[in-house]
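Structure request: LAGLIDADG endonuclease, Juglanconis oblonga.
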Amino acid sequence: MGYRGSKSNIKLFVKEQRVDGNSRLNKRLRCTLMGFERNYQIRILSKVLHKKEVKFYSTSNPQKQISINPWFLSGFIDGEGCFRISLTKVNRALGWRVQLFFQINLHVKDRALLEKIRDFLGVGNIHDSGKNLIQYRIQTSDELAVLINHLKNYPLVSQKKADYELFKKAYELVIKKEHLNSKGLLEIVALKSSLNLGLSEQLKKAFPEIIPAVRNINFSVSIPDSNWISGFVSAEGCFMVGINKSNLYTTGYQIYLIFTVTQHIRDELLMKCLNEYFGYGKLRRIRDVYEFQVFKFSDVEKSLAFFEKYPILGDKAKDFSDFSIVASLMKNKVHLTETGVAKIRKIKEGMNRGR
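Returned structure:
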């Protein structure tokens, strides 16, 4: 897994969450409802305001005094979390050791965010997991109980919920010590076969008769809270500044802003719900992905106001801050001057993977 950054829509890349060997709204919003929170006050920021906590995002110390909202955490898990069932060959008992893990893998630049998540839950550990990568992991039964309790109160929304339900069933078997007998072990293998990438070739050979557990994909999808969106977008969103050559402008360049969220087609209903929630932007399918895209400047301003109230966290907050600065320049027509284009170009070069 490379540097997460903001997920650009240019390559239409969707990162699989498969790692195995892988102010609450007045009412709960569902996709079928027609009343959405749309009328946000429009203000352009040069910095991200953590209004709820009366704390400010600073580009010089981006992670200082970040506060995690529980719905933000669930949204972020929907984007970046991974639930794993590990089966390791051993020379005792049934011949297999069962281990359960929850993990989030990020670029080292997001260590402060993982520390905040760890401190919020009060469990788990953070360690290096590769070049420029770090991993937050929860694995003991007591620690997993804390996570499961959180997700009971602040449930997942995306298709990752299906992974979580399989994982939770395996957890319940382990808690009852049923993984120590043949029947329980086979149940866990069946659960694993429907989770993430399924069984390895070694496990397929060891358990050739296994029937994959039923994977529930027909659950209701809703946007439970605005903070869930900020968490999900902190994981899966992209804030991009575009510069194209154009004879329509005296500077010779067109400047534009795009905010996108991209997901696999299995989360079609969630993406439609997200589109309806905002009440603006466009949703399009491109091959096996859905992309929610906001590019009209007046709609970009609405998005800025939304994320002012429900802030982006992590290293991506820097991208959002730069995105907001460029929007301010465009609002003041600075992008129509050669000096403005040069300034915006420099900002763009330092965003996302260029940071």
